[in-house]
Each structure stands twice: as structure tokens, then as C-alpha cells.
Amino acid sequence: MTNEVAVPLLPCPSIDDVIAFYQVLGFSTTYKQRKPYPCAGLQREGLHLQFFEIAGFDPEQSYGSCLVITPDITELHRAFAAGMRAAYGKILVSGVPRMTRPRARKNADGLGGFSVIDPGGNWIRVFQKPATTATPALSPAGRLAKALANAVVLADSKGDARQAVRILDSALARPQADDDPVTHLEILVYRAELAMALNDRETATEMLARVEHITLNADETARAAPTFEIAADLAAALR
């Protein structure tokens, strides 16, 4: 048999809240019922999700998750981010719901990925579709790059932001003369993002302030352009 389709069925405390959130991301409602139990189906192009309501369900305790494989994670993240900005005035990076940024995952052969954590606490894990002729990813070079790669796995894949913070704080506490300034910048911005996810606005503000004191040459500034965009988004969210 061919052309089979698997659709995840995920829990939530309110299908109305889930529908409202996914509409922000560009989904439409394909099905909704209240009896004999509340459930709903949602669709965005080829992406299908279904949800069922559990009274009193705690999103913080959810183990709901699914994988989404797409040929262009950047475009999908951009579309989701635009929807969030239009609805909320910012990209949601803390609490439930929220969304992480596209980053390379060393536990996925270096492919990029990001996650959407919806109002039911479900992790919708978006990964880049591997090229058919893809070569093995190189291991991160340098202590800062290795620390960042490990932190991304823990926070963005496992959901353990606190352990990721420990890794980044340890790396930042031991500066070395040969540290790559662009990776240093990326760590500071990611540390600020994790601080916001943990509702630590003071640390987020401190990390973004430290970004301004990093000196970059022209080539490094060009490399760091995407990270500066993230920093600007985080600064706007803090205001």
C-alpha cells in the first residue's frame, strides 16, 4: 500500500484555545465536535493535527508530541512568526504557548529544527527534510560551539531549559582569547531566550546588554546578522 497518512491525536484542556492558537499559525478547522467528547481537526496545507479535550488537563505535564518534516523550516518558521506578530505583537518565547527558533540539532545529524509548544503543552517538532545526497554533519568546532550545540539539544529537543542554562553559564564564565565572537554572541542571545522561557526577565535584559559590548569586524557582523534579528525580537518582547 502507498500514500498512507498518519495524523497525531493530541490532548489539550480546551479545543477552543487550541483552535484559536493554530488559526494564528495559518491553520483552518476541518472538523469540530462537542459530543460525545470534544475534539477538533486542523490543517495547514499538508500538515494535519487533531486534538481531544480533557477537563482539568495540565499543559505543563503533557507528553504530547509529534514530528513535522518539511523541506523549508525557515519559511515555515517565518510564516508562524508573522502570524504571532500579527496576533500578539511579538513571537511567543515564554510560557505556554511558545515557539523556539530554527537551530541546527546535533542529535539530528546537524539538521535544523524548531518547536512549537501549543496551548495543550504539545511539542510540535519541526525538522528540515534531509537532502538525498546529504553529507554527514561536522561536529561543532570550539568550546563555545560545543556548549551551544549541547544546550540546544537539552532545551529545544528535550525541553530541559534549566540544564541548558547551566551549560551556557559555565561556558560564559570561562572566556578564552580564541573564542569565536559570533558564537559568543549566539550564546548570549540564546541565553537571553532561555531566560525569557524561564520568566527571568532580569537575566534576559542583562544578556542582551552584554551583546552590545561584543566587537565584530565586517565579516563577523554579516555572519551574526540572523542573531542580531533574534536579539531585536527578544528586546521588543521585553518592552
UniProtKB/TrEMBL annotation:
Domain of life according to the entry: Bacteria
Gene3D superfamilies per UniProt: 2,3-Dihydroxybiphenyl 1,2-Dioxygenase, domain 1
Taxonomic source organism: Paractinoplanes hotanensis
Entry protein name: VOC family protein
